[in-house]
Amino acid sequence: MTNEVAFEVCVLPGDGIGVEVTEAALEVLRAVEAKVGGFRLQLTNHPAGAFCHRDTGEALPAATQAAADRADAILLGAMGQPEIRNADGTEIAPQLDLRFRYGLYAGVRPCRALSGGPLALRHPRAAEIDFVLIRESTEGLFASRGKGELIDDREARDTQVITRATSERLFDFAFGLAERRKTQGRPGKVTLVDKANVFRSFAFFRKVFDERAARFPGIAAERLYVDACALDLVRRPWEFDVLVTENMFGDILSDLAAGLVGGMGFAASADIGDANAVFQPAHGTAPDIAGQGKANPTAALLSAAMMLDWLAERKNVAAAAQAARLIEKAVGAVFAGGRARPFDAGGRDGTRAMTDAVLAELGRG
Ligand code: ATP
Asked: Atom 4, ligand 1: which residue's CA is nearest?
């Protein structure tokens, strides 16, 4: 069909279970593309990751970078392998390089209870959990990545960086998201998570937050210290709407958040900048289960839906957003209907069976 919009997607399956869950995401994307129509996905796999580094000397080869530069979006599995490391002992993590390369400052980590899905808390309100944690992803403590100092084997230093420019964009993104969610019935609230009572960098972060909050009078702004936030994420997670925080705090709290609603196999994510975005499950390569067909593809499928939503909004293609809803609905129906249950939720269904269950729901809908 000539009037269909084509999206070029650079697919980086990576290593370990990244490869397995990406294959599941591609199957489901092809299914919704065929079902909804109105847009086309050009999905092309490219090499990158720890094994690529071992085999070619490069974790992100130039041809892969060029493909990522050209693409409308990047879909990533997971990268890294414990025994394959850089000379300084750090893990191979080209996914972090992509965040810096494209200025992907907003790490978007939705945390939503799936009806029929696993919940860590027995509280009756646990099923209401529905918030988005936004992790700044280009600075904070991670700005020191590759630049830390070791002084005479006596002292080591890593320096945190918070800039006004990135913080303003980050907070505007968070408030914009809260505004959109408010139109869908969410409370319209942004919670800043920091440690402004101790560190100058965080006091500055909070000052910029307060300035930007004033521009969004329809959205409530609250501030929490990170330690109190960790407590409240366990004690009253259903009261959060949008949380926004520094890179390292976000790294930690987003895993805690994932733990509330089933663990890493359920944790979708997107790293979003002004012009580019990478969509990937928040989990790593899970070498302990890689190659066994046991990986839960839910996080990868929900990340693929986030990609469709982002493309839909940027290119004004409603059909892509419709396809995203179909994926979410099918995944939800699999859990709600007890049609399949992955190993990490106490079930017996591997990647293939979970993917087939989602494809069957799509066929039914
Ligand atoms: P990274 O440091 O890159 O986050 P990691 O290996 O420390 O990676 P993850 O790979 O994120 O940690 O996951 C930790 C454990 O959770 C895995 O070892 C695995 O047992 C489990 N896990 C993670 N993702 C999944 C998944 N999609 N399905 C099933 N189990 C998973």
From this structure: 284
